[in-house]
Design goal:
Length: 503
């Protein structure tokens, strides 16, 4: 380890604790609400689209703002940005817990995502500045393990809090933990040197990217209720396409772009970003629909439903903790491609769900997914930074984190469309109610003579829909594996030299 300056002592592990506290908290909140959704739906009278937005708006705000906030942190300072993000996150968590309606909850979740962006955009730079050599490698390994385990541990923590206290406590718990993280961070973190002239902030590029991500996700969510050919869906898709094209034009001409497009043409960075996008979509996005099935159809408690994900979270943590050391000499393309293949295979294991199935079939598949998640998680950041020049490592880190969160947000929307439409194809009525966690209410309000048949039909429809969702997730993982292996293939020296000369 290296001291942060010539007059300060070695940092020890306090900076890593400060960063990992914030990272774990913000990533747990991506999935902690999964098992709480059925209770939220009852208390707040939420629709299926409303449930999607409770999860999706957080991931979307986090993904859409990471690049912009990362650029802003270059100007105002990484430590300052991290602490500000923590403060916003804690305040928004309190607002989420107190929310009296679906609209207030969704709005507070969006603000929570803004705070999370301030935290997540600066974590890699803070660790990179605090440690060197072997200590830096160990620090990134622990940080990667935290990443790999946090998203999958969310349902377990959420189940314990929802059943033991209330769904509101999945948000209230962030307040004391966040205050501790702020106190530790203020003492342990020092401001990394920025060096050189301060960068200009690409506000136009940030706005265009945010609009593109938001409208694309909104279109996928609205398509469930209004159809793919509705004016609203097509209009949102059109706006998203124009915003994306504008972002590419702005970045190509900006003197201080959020993402230098030339980096995507050099080396394997484009492949790493594809891996990050599809990794989050295939590994985590279908879990919220599995939670709805486990609780509202099979009747599991919130705790039991959360514990079903234990094979994923446990193996992800164990594998990630050792991945940096064991896979150090393995080419990143092999680790990332192989990890996506495992994630895809694990999802395919789960497609045989039947109307009378319990949760047992999920466990083996989630274990395979967990191995893939653990292998990929610590490699994504290091592969991104290793794919660009040293002076662009912050940009690469921000881009890969953006891809991860955007993949989760888009995955929820896409798999939600698959899940909902599959149920609608098997049930003439009440499909949206069942999809949003109201299966038990639908059965309870049916005539006594029809309840048995209706309950069996719901079991069959939801299990089949979930199997279809896992099938799509599995194909996404396998397709991603092939794309990553192809895109990250080492170029011939002559081609690389020719491109370098041309640029």
């Amino acid at each position: 380890m290296a001291p942060s300056s010539s007059t300060t002592p070695r940092p020890g592990w306090a900076p890593l604790v400060a960063v990992c506290l914030g990272t774990f908290m913000l990533l747990v909140d991506v999935s902690i609400v999964n098992v709480a959704l059925p209770r939220m739906a009852l208390d707040l009278d939420a629709s299926f689209a409303g449930l999607q937005w409770v999860v999706d708006v957080y991931a979307l705000a986090l993904a859409a703002l990471l690049l912009l906030v990362g650029s802003l942190s270059d100007v105002v300072g990484r430590r300052t940005t991290y602490l500000a993000g923590l403060g916003v996150f804690v305040a928004a968590s309190l607002a989420c817990g107190l929310a009296p309606s679906q609209g207030v909850l969704v709005t507070a979740r969006a603000v929570q995502g803004i705070g999370a962006a301030g935290m997540f955009a600066t974590t890699i730079a803070l660790i990179n500045a605090a440690y060197t050599g072997r200590a830096r490698g160990a620090a990134f390994g622990i940080w990667g393990a935290t990443n790999g385990a946090a998203a999958a541990a969310g349902p377990i923590v959420g189940g314990l809090l929802t059943q033991g206290l209330s769904w509101r406590w999945v948000f209230f718990v962030n307040v004391p933990i966040g205050l501790i993280a702020i106190a530790v961070s203020r003492r342990a973190l020092s401001e990394p040197p920025r060096g050189g002239a301060r960068r200009r902030i690409d506000w136009a590029g940030g706005a265009a990217f945010t609009v593109a991500a938001a409208t694309a996700t909104a279109a996928l969510v609205r398509a469930n209720e209004e159809g793919w050919t509705s004016a609203t869906t097509l209009g949102l898709l059109g706006i998203g396409a124009v915003a994306l094209a504008s972002f590419l034009v702005i970045e190509a001409r900006s003197p201080a772009p959020l993402l230098e497009l030339s980096l995507l043409r050099r080396g394997p960075l484009a492949g790493v970003l594809v891996a990050a996008l599809l990794y989050s979509a295939a590994a985590f996005s279908a879990l919220i629909y599995a939670s709805i099935w486990l609780q509202t159809v099979l009747g599991l408690s919130a705790i039991a439903a959360g514990l079903v994900t234990l094979p994923l979270s446990g193996l992800a943590f164990v594998v990630a903790a050792g991945a940096g050391r064991l896979l150090h000499d393995v080419a990143p393309r092999v680790v990332l491609g192989g990890g996506l293949a495992l994630i895809g295979a694990g999802n395919l294991v789960q497609i045989g769900l039947g109307g009378g199935s319990g949760s047992a079939r999920l466990l083996a598949g989630l274990a395979v997914v967990g191995i893939g998640v653990g292998a990929m998680s610590p490699i994504l950041a290091s592969a991104a930074m290793g794919a660009v020049p040293q002076e662009r490592t912050g940009m690469a880190a921000g881009a890969v984190n953006t891809a991860r969160q955007l993949g989760f947000a888009l995955g929820i929307a896409v798999f939600g469309a698959v899940f909902s439409s599959s149920i609608a194809g098997r049930m003439a009525t009440d499909a949206h109610t069942v999809a949003s966690g109201g299966a038990q209410g639908v059965v309870a309000h049916a005539p006594d003579t029809a309840r048995g048949r209706l309950d069996a039909a719901i079991h069959d429809a939801v299990a089949s829909a979930l199997g279809t969702t896992f099938l799509v997730a599995g194909l996404v993982g396998l397709l991603g594996a092939g794309l990553v292996l192809a895109m990250m293939r080492e170029r011939r020296p002559a081609a690389a030299a020719e491109e370098s000369f041309a640029t």
